[in-house]
Write a structure and sequence with these properties.
mainly alpha, Arc Repressor Mutant, subunit A, elongated, Tetracycline Repressor, domain 2, single chain
Length: 199
């Protein structure tokens, strides 16, 4: 018996693969169905339209980031180096492994579409605000309570994600980590000084 929720997840995963490989313009119902190994009619059974399919994929993107950030929070222990914690949590928004690299590429395509699609724009705004909320919480943990500093960190993450996606040969994962580490350990007003090297 087919599990409807699993089938929906399989179709959304197929959207990610198609978009990561060829861009959002390639995420037609026909191409997604072929990627998922299904007939177009089967995809329509779960998603009534192409737009509904893209909306589901965008929401899944937000969910995945939320799950990873929550998992990082659950792994915290008293005495953990707050700078390393901040790096790990912030890293959930960056292309630091193959899965996150694909997600970032997909998300950037969705952002471009969100400029002219109000519904996608709402989801993009949700992730935009969520990133800034996380940035503010991380900085608070470092003794910095400054909305401008939170915006600065969020903008840095946005820029690193974009640069690494467009120029992966020029911005390695080590470079991303080093830039993030440098930013966090040189925050003005931070109450904690890390003795850890770049990671």
């Amino acid at each position: 018996m087919v599990d409807p929720e699993q089938r929906r997840r399989d179709v959304v995963d197929a959207v990610f693969r198609v978009v990561a490989r060829g861009g959002i313009q390639q995420a037609t119902l026909r191409n997604v169905a072929a990627e998922a190994g299904l007939a177009v009619g089967s995809v329509r059974h779960y998603f009534a339209s192409h737009r509904e399919l893209l909306m589901a994929a965008a929401r899944e993107m937000v969910r995945r980031v939320d799950v990873r950030v929550a998992a990082q929070r659950e792994r915290r222990h008293p005495g953990d180096d707050p700078y390393l914690v901040a790096q790990e949590v912030a890293g959930q928004f960056l292309p630091l492994d193959a899965a996150r690299a694909d997600e970032t590429a997909v998300w950037l395509d969705f952002l471009a579409a969100a400029r002219t699609d109000p519904a996608l724009g709402e989801i993009a705004a949700e992730l935009h605000d969520g990133l800034r909320d996380v940035a503010g919480r991380l900085l608070h943990r470092l003794g910095v309570d400054d909305p401008v500093a939170a915006e600065h960190l969020a903008a840095l993450l946005d820029g690193l994600a974009l640069g690494a996606t467009l120029h992966p040969d020029r911005m390695s994962q080590d470079t991303i980590r080093a830039v993030l580490h440098r930013h966090l350990t040189q925050l003005p007003g931070a109450a904690y000084e890390s003795e850890h090297p770049d990671v």
